[in-house]
Specification:
Elements (H helix, E strand, L loop, with lengths): L2 H36 L5 H11 L6 H20 L1 H27 L2 H4 L6 H21 L9 H10 L3 H15 L6 H23 L4 E7 L3 H12 L4 E6 L6 E10 H14 L4 E7 L23
Antiparallel strand pairs: 1-3, 1-4, 2-3
Helix pairs in contact: 1-4, 1-6, 2-3, 3-4, 3-7, 6-9, 7-8, 10-11
């Protein structure tokens, strides 16, 4: 392993640690600063814990969250294996830890004084939704998991093939509306708005800047295109055997996948090499492989690297 690759991996590891700390701290702060003081309901393990606290379970919310997370983590480890244990273990501990820290601070410093918005449920739902959306969005983007109530749908999906998104929606919906036992319909519906806001933001942030496009090019200059795309755009190239429909002539189709932010540059490079190139651009929802889903510590290619 060369020095640059080792440094990149260390940087990658430290970045993920900071993301885990920041995301779980922000989520816990939002719960203690806005959700609990305003009486909003929420989904997941947090929603269950708040409801149990209202039902006079003699434990702080953070301890209930911790115990539920541990139980669900053990069940998940049994059914979902080693990868699950690595990606989910940290959040299962960090979130209740930060929740406990902010609980203690909230006992000393009234959240209603620090952030006097709790009488406005619309504002509370919007702000809480945005903050939780940012916290969970960057956590999901980093490849980590929040654990908790995500685990039962993950197990059901693995065992039965039932769609995970649908399972999470059913479970979270059940948790939210079960809190009508301890809350009124007004706080419950504003809680639903908050969940919709943060669910939308999680989806947007987790894919932000990661959308991709596939470019397929028919050209009489495939080798020149290969070299230009490799050295100028920094993306790989695949040659596909093709036959021209009009003449029956055998040729090579050039195919590459780029991030959307690289698309304009890639088009410009291709057309500078061959202004008459026939180019088809297709939006791609997911790419797995070197340069996209693998950690990439390679240096940028130049002409000396291209055969």
């Amino acid at each position: 392993m060369n020095k640059n690759s080792k440094k990149n991996k260390i940087f990658h590891f430290l970045t993920n640690v900071l993301i885990l700390l920041f995301s779980n701290a922000l989520y816990a702060l939002t719960v203690e600063l806005i959700i609990i003081p305003s009486g909003l309901v929420t989904g997941g393990v947090t929603g269950i814990s708040i409801m149990l606290r209202h039902l006079n379970v003699p434990l702080d919310v953070s301890y209930i969250v911790f115990f539920l997370n541990v139980i669900l983590y053990i069940i998940g480890a049994i059914f979902l294996g080693r990868h699950f244990m690595i990606t989910t273990g940290a959040s299962s501990v960090l979130y209740p830890f930060f929740l406990n820290v902010f609980e203690r601070l909230a006992a000393r410093y009234d959240p209603r004084v620090i952030l006097p918005i709790h009488d406005d449920l619309v504002l509370c739902a919007a702000v809480a939704g945005i903050l939780i959306g940012v916290a969970l969005g960057i956590l999901v983007r980093s490849g980590a998991s929040t654990g908790g109530s995500d685990i039962p749908p993950m197990i059901v999906t693995k065992l039965t093939g039932f769609p995970m998104g649908t399972g999470m929606f059913i479970l979270d919906g059940s948790i939210i509306f079960s809190q009508l036992l301890v809350s009124d319909i007004r706080h419950t519906l504003y809680g639903v708005i908050m969940v919709i806001v943060y669910s939308y933001l999680v989806n947007q942030i987790s894919v932000m800047g990661m959308s991709k496009a596939q470019i397929s090019v028919m050209s009489d200059k495939p080798e020149e295109l290969r070299r230009a795309v490799l050295t100028t755009v920094g993306r790989g190239i695949t040659f596909l055997s093709a036959t021209k429909g009009l003449t029956g002539e055998k040729t090579k189709m050039v195919m590459t996948v780029v991030y959307n932010r690289q698309l304009a540059r890639a088009k410009k490079v291709i057309l500078s090499v061959d202004p008459s190139a026939f180019m088809v651009i297709t939006r791609v929802s997911e790419v797995n492989g070197n340069g996209f889903s693998f950690f990439k510590g390679d240096k940028k290619l130049d002409n000396s690297d291209v055969m």
